[in-house]
Amino acid sequence: MEEIRFCPEHGFYRGEVCHCGKKGEMILDKEKVEKLGRFISGVLRHFPERFGLEMDENGWVDFEKLVKVARRKFKWANRWLIKALVYSDSKGRYEIKDGKIRAKYGHSVNVELNDYPIAEEEVLYYGTSEEEAQRMLEIGIKPVNQTYVHLSTTIEKSEEVARLRTDDPIILEIDAKKARENGIRIIKANKYIALAKEIPPQYIKRVIKL
């Protein structure tokens, strides 16, 4: 976990030094980044109702209401620090727009995400273990503890995900073009992540052993 700093020229960033070489002002230390990050992730992905927040079908909640909830949890939290957390996140986990905030992916709550663009990639990837890969070749890829299956736009990103769970990752290559043509909705969460409710086995076109 990296600290968050503010560069007068380039805004919020994570780590000690901005890409321009300057060491900006400390905004959040590592411990607070982890605490606030876990809390915001939990509220926006898993349990908004626990804190009285209304979430619409696209995952949005009122930003100022989230700020109030966060301040009740952490006296030091404020809207500035939440924005720092969001805008410094290189993984694009969150989005702030028109007075609202949402998690871009990782939901276990039921969201439709109808305002996401359709993923246009012809091929997508899913990283997993060899044991799970064999099962998915039979029944397809289904979400586990999440609302959507999370697909990667590159082999490298799918490998990163898989290595969180196994030392010997297997990459499943998905025929995204054919899946879309046959009515499977695949949407784009950010540059590296696409989402689908499930991927039936007939769209797994290749197994890549690394």
From TrEMBL:
The lineage of its organism: Archaea, Methanobacteriati, Methanobacteriota, Archaeoglobi, Archaeoglobales. Pfam families: PTS_2-RNA (PF01885). This is Probable RNA 2'-phosphotransferase. SUPFAM superfamilies: ADP-ribosylation. It comes from Archaeoglobus profundus (strain DSM 5631 / JCM 9629 / NBRC 100127 / Av18). GO terms for molecular function: NAD+ poly-ADP-ribosyltransferase activity; tRNA 2'-phosphotransferase activity. The keyword ATP-binding does not apply. Removes the 2'-phosphate from RNA via an intermediate in which the phosphate is ADP-ribosylated by NAD followed by a presumed transesterification to release the RNA and generate ADP-ribose 1''-2''-cyclic phosphate (APPR>P). May function as an ADP-ribosylase. GO terms for biological process: tRNA splicing, via endonucleolytic cleavage and ligation. HAMAP family: KptA. Its EC number is 2.7.1.-. Keywords: NAD, Transferase. Coiled coil: none annotated. Gene3D superfamilies: 3.20.170.30, RNA 2'-phosphotransferase, Tpt1/KptA family, N-terminal domain (1.10.10.970). Belongs to the KptA/TPT1 family.
